[in-house]
Structure prediction request, 330 residues.
Amino acid sequence: STELRKVLADAACLSAGHRSEERYDAPKCHPETRIAVIEDIMSWVNAKDIQEKMMWMSGPAGAGKSSIAQTVAERCHEENKLVSSFFFSRTATGTGRDDGTKLVSTIAYQMTASIPSAKKLVLGIIEENEAILTYTMEDQIRDLVLMSLKKATELCYQTCLSIPYVIIIDGLDECNNPEIQSRIVKMIASVLLEPSARLCFLITSRPELEIRAAFDEPLVRQFCNKVVLDNHYNPDKDIETFLQSEFATIKCAHVLFSTLSKEPTWPSEENLRTLVERSSGQFIYAATVIKYIKDNRDDPRERLKTIIAIRQGETTPYSDLDALYTYILS
Prediction:
């Protein structure tokens, strides 16, 4: 059993999960932000007998998709609802987090921990046919994951135990092969065709062409609930809350806290408003600003002045972020 689990571990990407050390200090939502969208997702997670067992949350770069996915993964894990989480990353080359080749084996590996009754079943299938770990992702998910899950569910029903059922796949656009991106979406839809598949999938990505096309296919569309991170969720208010909280922390925790704490009006309302406007709904701008300002090597008041003084040329959604990065990296 230990040897077989090692075989499965070698085929999986152990760094892809929401609790991975490689992703230490992974972005997650401030407790007072993104409340509406997280509640919408959790309501969907908790809904019974719904057809739409796949949720696609899309939004531009920096909109906070991974933070939301991380927060939802943590909540589902705490509530014993999470089967598996997989966070793609195009920069994690050679690990399997960048190409999708280890997605299904990772789901199977995490399932042996999240659903104890599935462990023996998964390892039993591998013992009978170790080559299954080289099969197509479509065959692996059917013959390894679904088969084990079906039998584990039957066992749990006999003992009246609840069983985890949520799988989270974040950053599908970070998978470096558009064809694989499309295959993953269609594979999930084919899983949901199985009456015994008591699963739901949360997938996040940018709305890129290949992914949009996959979600628009009739087979996929019947199962899909689409959530778009746009102004409907009032990101400006959440960004303002995040900034206020972070500046309060800086005033307490920075090495210059003794002088900062004597400035109740810092930062000014005007400064906060400027930062919210420049964020253009992108949490990544606000987070980058805070990371720069809170550095203990300099006075945060001076660093904020520097940020406010940066002027961008063209007015595009990312021009303020471009100007910020250009300054910080120069």
User: Anything to note?
Assistant: The chain is about 55% helix and 10% strand. The chain has a mean pLDDT of 89.
